[in-house]
Amino acid sequence: MTFRLLAAGVVLASALGAVAASAEEFPSKPIRFVTPYPPGGATSLHAAIITTAAEPFFGQPMISIIRAGGGGVVGTTEVSKAEPDGHTVLFGDPTIISLRPQVEQLPFKADDFIPVARINYAPAVFVAGKNAPFSNLKEMTDYAKANPDKLVYSSDNVNGLTYVAFEMLKKETGTKMKGVEFGGGGPAITQLLGGNTMAYAGLPTVVGEHITSGAVKPICVADTQRWDGFKDVPTCTEAGAPIIWHFWLGALVPKGTPTDRVKRLSDGFGELVKDKGFLTLIGRINSRIDFQPHEEFAKTLEAERAALKALYVSLGKLPG
Amino acid sequence: MVIDSLLAGLAFLANPWTILAAGFGLVVGIVVGALPGLTATMAVAVLSPFTFFMDAAIGIPFLLGVYKAAIYAGSIPAITINTPGTAAAAATALDGHWLARRGQARKALEMSLYASVFGDLFATFVLIFAATALATVALRFGAPEFAALFLFSLTMIAAVSGGSMVKGLISAAIGVFIACIGLDPMSGYNRFTFGSVDLMGGVSLVPLLIGMFALSEILIRSESLATGAADAAIGRERLSWAEFRAVLPTLVRSSGIGAFIGALPGLGAEISCWIAYGVAKRRSKRPQEYGRGSLEGIAAAESGNNAVCPAALVPLLVFGIPGDTVTAILLGAFMAQGLTPGPMLFESHGATVYGLFAILLATNVMLLGFGLLAVRWLPRITLLPDGLLFPAVTILCFAGAYSVNSSLFDVFVMVAGGGAGYLMRKTGVPVPPLVIGLLLAPGLENSLRQTMMLSDNSLSIFVERPIAAGILALIALVVLGAAARNVTIPNLFRVQWRFK
User: Which ipTM value was assigned to this complex?
Assistant: First the structure.
């Protein structure tokens, strides 16, 4: 009897000890940081910098896992099904997290993830080709109105960043333009530079250099304020079309991850984004940090999802 | 002007750490390239973060060394064990392994090394002296031009179909079908995925290649294991100067093809090796030797794929546009050093750019040195007893297939590819057309559909644009030329019996 009690007590104590230990010792093994896109894009580049600098802020190495396929669906699905212990983190963005789960049949839903931290954001910048018959938003709109479906723009993917930017522009200006999907920002801007299309909307990291060199004409920035790098370029709202469309990169974990671990990860990222070496590298790739901790990030995401849903309902692509 | 800048760039080579880093990169690249499943892309992606905190004169040469050595070294296992180490070495396996089985592994390896270095050197000079001009031409390639170019590349199936054109086309059709699996590239609809998340990403090329080439080879050779001692000849025979001189025109032509394809965004070394191989066979005086140990075939494939490496830097450096995945990762590594590739780079960091060119040239010489060292010993692999070699290669197949995407599903793809490859060999259906179909179909589909969107579904866009029209004319010429050679009047009646 005594022996049994003792044994039960030992088991109980060790179990409690284990719980206490796991609560204290998170992260207890290397963290998998999953990028759902092929190497070479903006996402994998940010992931490489984050995972290079992360270890001191998490007490464990962070390993960059590149799991591309299906336009981000394969990697995202894997994370949604991973053990929710905080050791598997998805590097997400608005299309794969907020938009596509709402408008496409995907193996995961938006609320399969808990937001951990937004690392940065950048607005979409509308640009026109060097030889395009318009140089600002008004001329562009006039051209599109006079020539319906003749203004051909480089798009990325259906429900992608550029795709959504132009859907917003077409809705705001009441114009018809024709998008050709080239599968990504790189090929899309190449086609614009080669004069095969007339316009494009992309991130400052993609279009910045070409604006500076004069290879493309800036039209407007889809943000509430002008972008630091090019102060001369008006916001779309100033130019007459109130469009705000941000592309963020942020960390998310599968649903069911304990809140204290979400907070621990969020705090870790919060310290990381203040690191000098990290900031130097981020600056060099023309990115800038705009950190949001997990609670704030969750609110941002909620608002973003509602706005995108409203957009797609008004486009007739979703039932109201 | 260019020469002066280049001489100034040579100063970069005075830094012993630069040379050491490049040399270390080459060694890493050779190992990675030679292991099936470890690709140049993966190696550069994994290693590039380590260079972020290094000096640009150390980190960038290291990555460039990895890149070019990995593309070269893919030919080593292709020749010695019929397992292309990278997808770009698939064409090399056709002739290289044939020679190795007949005790001429060293000759094949030397041919591959010289061809790689030649192609690389050729394209480096193109990069140095004609980067801007070539990039301007490449930029003129829109969707219609790419569609025409992919169509032209499909004619290469004829060159690798072996005896029977019908079986070649069957094989190519299977390849095209496999390429259709996954998400529709433009609308995102599921095609043949049966609800499987793994299939949404499509069937991965590298695991399939490993299965079709390596695993099926093991299965075939296991049948005759008892008599396996037959090829225990020593692969000591070296490449003669006469043999090298004979393939020189092929080297120049293939390097040109590789350099041009490398400068075009989106094709890459995997496709360029087949185009170079096909064109070389078509122009050859001895086309019947292709697939049966033709040194010309090895020379064409290897110079064709290695010329892509420096050429892929053309659009990257001139416009900041990466042409393939590896250069996209290099773009990141450059940016992390504060060297943003693009129109401003030559002005703001001219010295560094020419230093880079000098390093590219130096790594070529070093690659030759390392390669010659390796080539002395590598033929011994072919002397290993089958009982030792086969299990080792089988393990490599499984490990390689898994490591590409850390995916168990890819292992199943590899095994399925092995079974399919075995059946195809047994029935005389050639494997290379399948690979070409698989490689070309996505690009052809995308560019054709983009073209149709640009032109409102009018085919006239292909003749209205001069470059596209030119490529189409070339296709007509090639097809008619082949027809004129083979279908003479008496042949026309015999044609049905010519299928085996």
Answer: 0.77
